């Protein structure tokens, strides 16, 4: 689950202060999380028109926006933050798949993230190709300014 690795999903809700994560157990019950994980599914939405969509992330946009709105309510970062680039391994068919030869996962979906020193994600941007708001010229500057907005 994210960048903090545990052997089992249930281990994120351990009550022992040495092994458990307070963020997981204080904000969501384990059973509720497992139910959401089991029920989460993104399928094709019937389209009213045949016009091509400009938002390539339209299937998950509402979930991404919900995450972005919810994080500031449950967690406030300290003084130290990090900007990180992360590849989610993906070998399926996507038009915005990235190939970065120096990464461990060479093919995947590129995420730019704002994290704290303990690798808890505060904000992220999914790179969806040149059509998204962050593609084209000055890509890096646009991403950094978006990630630092509101801090």
Automatic annotation (TrEMBL):
Q: Give start and end of each PiggyBac transposable element-derived protein domain.
A: 1-149
- Tell me the domain of life: Eukaryota
**PANTHER family named in the record:** PIGGYBAC TRANSPOSABLE ELEMENT-DERIVED PROTEIN 4 (PTHR46599:SF3)
Q: State the name under which the record lists this protein.
A: PiggyBac transposable element-derived protein 4
């Amino acid at each position: 689950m994210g960048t903090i690795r545990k052997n089992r999903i249930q281990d994120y809700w351990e009550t022992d202060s040495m092994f458990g994560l307070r963020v997981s157990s204080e904000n969501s019950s384990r059973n509720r999380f497992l139910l959401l994980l089991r029920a989460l599914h993104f399928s094709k939405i019937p389209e009213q028109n045949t016009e091509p969509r400009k938002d390539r992330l339209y299937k998950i946009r509402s979930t991404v926006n919900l995450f972005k709105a919810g994080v500031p309510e449950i967690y406030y970062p300290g003084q130290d933050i990090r900007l990180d680039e992360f590849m989610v391994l993906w070998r399926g068919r996507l038009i915005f798949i990235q190939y970065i030869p120096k990464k461990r996962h060479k093919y995947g979906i590129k995420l730019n993230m704002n994290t704290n020193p303990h690798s808890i994600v505060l904000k992220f941007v999914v790179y969806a190709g040149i059509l998204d708001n962050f593609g084209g010229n000055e890509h890096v500057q646009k991403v950094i300014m978006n990630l630092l907005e509101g801090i």
